[in-house]
Amino acid sequence: MISNRKLEHLLLGLYCDVEYRKKTGFGDIELIHKALPEVNKEKIDLSTDFFGKELNLPFIISAMTGGHPSSLKINRELAKAADKLNVAMGVGSQRAAIENPELAPTYTVVRDEAPSAFIIGNIGAPQIEYAEKAVEMLDLDSLAVHLNPLQEAIQPGGDVDATGYLESVEKISKVVNVPVIVKETGAGIKREDALALERAGVDAIDVAGAGGTSWAAVETYRAKDRSLGELYWDWGIPTAVSTVEVSESVKIPVVSSGGIRTGLDAAKAFALGASAVGIALPLLKDAYTGYKSVIKSIEKFKEELRVAMFLVGASSIEDLRKSDLIIKGSTKEWLQERGFETRKYARRSEYNER
Q1: Most exposed residue of 106, 116, 196, 321, measured as fewest CB within 10 angstroms of its CB?
Q2: Which domains does the chain have, with CATH numbers?
Q3: 3-state helix, strand, coil in the chain (%, to 5)
Q4: CB 320 within 8 A of CB 345
Q5: For residues 321 and 304, what is the distance between their CA atoms, to the nearest angstrom?
Q6: Beta-bridge mates of residue 257
Q7: Do the beta carbons of residue 217 and residue 245 sit within 8 Å?
Q8: Residue 36, class by beta-carbon neighbours within 10 Å (0-12 exposed, 13-18 middle, 19+ buried)?
Q9: What is the pLDDT of residue 61?
């Protein structure tokens, strides 16, 4: 039963180690310090325009849950925080509520508590018939279409027929009247897939790279035989790598998520080309305590981001995306092997001043 599975996912995220053992790749990214920043830290502008809506921060409380009675409280607390801070929020897959309307309140509570927030819905790639209902359920600002082949491959009884996904995504993009964001669920997106999605008409891509929650890890705990999940626990494209692969390849907005834990991580993601960042697991744990804990964590994140911007002389997120950085280690090796020029990031400010 979908509802019971969602409860299991919540409990596993709260009590078990479900994160990647490898790193996101952001440890290989070094922002270059500017001794003459020429900005006032207190006047740094963190706001952004996200599909026509002004957000106080380019931040998404990433999709986590919905579809089980226990998830109502979590979504309520997350939504309260999103509304008070004017950041975006995503919900978990809405399939459960579309198939069982009694579960709809576990999702609609989000719009009830955050009437003016930017809310992102969620359906699976093959679920064309659910698209319009998902939008109507929460009066969505955007609809996320999730891709989760890794989870399906490890999950007991998972759907491993992925034929026609791209065609389905294209149809969903035409059916709904809100922007469509295609998002991975923790294994990243490579350049070629990003280009295919852009051609299919999607409006943004959330790379959701390897480094945060591993759905292979989550499903490992649910499986009788854990060997397959253990083997693929760290499968995927590191978030920093995927952020570059996608942002350098498409002209649509890119969301960087997957193991981002601090404002400094986010600063690096923006400098690599992201338009927004998303965080899930740490805020899920905060939500059990209450919305004030969620707010406290996001406020801490904001200050960390502001300090990073000050130290590179960026007065806005757009300035940050032009700042100098060094790409090192395995991230550099990966990108160069894939044909990306990493040296250009080190002297961007020089070129911008010409």
Answers
A1: 116
A2: 2-353 (3.20.20.70)
A3: 50, 15, 35
A4: no
A5: 16
A6: 278
A7: no
A8: exposed
A9: 98
Count Cβ atoms below 10 Å from residue 27 Cβ, excluding itself.
Answer: 16
Show the tokens assigned to 246: 């996608």
Q: Is 141:89 a contact under the CB 8 Å cutoff? A: no
Distance CA 301, CA 224 (A): 39
pLDDT digits (tens, 9 = 90+) for 27-41: 999 999 999 999 999
Structure tokens at 101: 């309307």
Which of 18, 31, 89 lies closest to 262, judged by CA?
Answer: 31
Q: Is 205 left (phi over 0), alpha (psi -120 to 50) or beta?
A: beta
**Model pLDDT, residue 354:** 47
Other C-beta atoms closer than 10 Å to the C-beta of 33 total 10
Q: Which of the residues in the chain have pLDDT under 50?
A: 1, 354
Q: Torsions phi, psi of 142, nearest 5?
A: -160, 155
Residue 236 near residue 166, CB atoms below 8 Å: no
Rounded to the nearest 10 degrees, the angle between the axes of helix 215-222 and helix 2-15 is 110
Residue type, 160: V
d(CA 324, CA 86) in angstroms, rounded, equals 29
* One-letter identity of residue 101: P
Q: List C-alpha distances in Å: 293 to 89, 203, 257, 304.
A: 16, 32, 21, 17
- 33 CB-near residues (< 8 Å, 6+ apart): 311, 312
Q: How many residues does the chain have?
A: 354
Give Cβ neighbours of residue 239 (< 8 Å, ≥ 6 apart): 24, 25, 26, 188, 207, 208, 209, 210, 211, 212, 256, 257, 258, 259, 260, 269
Give alpha helix (H) positions in 54-185.
Answer: 69-85, 95-99, 105-113, 131-138, 149-154, 165-175
First to last CA, the chain: 60
Output DSSP code: residue 93. Answer: -
Does residue 253 contact residue 281 with C-beta atoms inside 8 Å? no
